[in-house]
Backbone:
């Protein structure tokens, strides 16, 4: 619902020959909307990410001011006007450079989609598929390579939150230049 209220903070990230509107990203952090509208969820996601970090990596243990860099609502379509879109994030060596911890939360019931699987590139060069249920979160270090397999049926909705060292970002982008405009 919050994403639908923020068309001013939505960008088209369709790529790789995908038709327009295949992959839309709404920056829910714009103007502090996520923090203001859903303060308990905002705190819960941040606290969970930091707890997972403490249990596994301690990458934020000596860092002050770990806050949200972005809170993004991703919508990916498998078809537009009945035509396949090849929706997915096909770059196997994609990472969330500049962030510390990434939290992906699936908002779609996986039985309503085919494909669109979050995959991480493992040290042995294989892609690991991450199976999850609606509402599950995957927390990982932001520099870990990840991608999304081609979505072949349905609409995939995911909440992507990235934490970084810095102040809470209220700009309609992840790009640093927009924070200071």
Residues:
């Amino acid at each position: 619902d919050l994403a639908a209220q923020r068309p001013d903070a939505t960008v088209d990230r369709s790529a790789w020959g995908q038709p327009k509107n295949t992959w839309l990203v709404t920056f829910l952090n714009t103007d502090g909307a996520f923090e203001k509208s859903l303060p308990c969820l905002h705190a819960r996601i941040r606290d969970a990410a930091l707890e997972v970090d403490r249990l596994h990596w301690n990458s934020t243990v000596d860092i002050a001011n770990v806050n949200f860099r972005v809170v993004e609502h991703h919508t990916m379509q498998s078809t537009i006007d009945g035509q396949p879109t090849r929706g997915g994030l096909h770059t196997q060596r994609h990472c969330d450079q500049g962030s510390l911890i990434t939290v992906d939360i699936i908002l779609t019931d996986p039985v309503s989609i085919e494909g669109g699987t979050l995959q991480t590139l493992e040290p042995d060069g294989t892609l690991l598929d991450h199976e999850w249920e609606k509402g599950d979160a995957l927390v990982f270090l932001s520099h870990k390579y990840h991608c999304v397999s081609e979505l072949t049926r349905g609409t995939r909705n995911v909440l992507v939150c990235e934490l970084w060292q810095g102040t809470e970002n209220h700009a309609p982008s992840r790009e640093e230049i927009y924070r200071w405009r």
Remarks:
- Residues 39-56 form the longest helix (18 residues).
- The radius of gyration is 16 Å.
- The mean pLDDT is 94.
- The chain is about 15% helix and 40% strand.
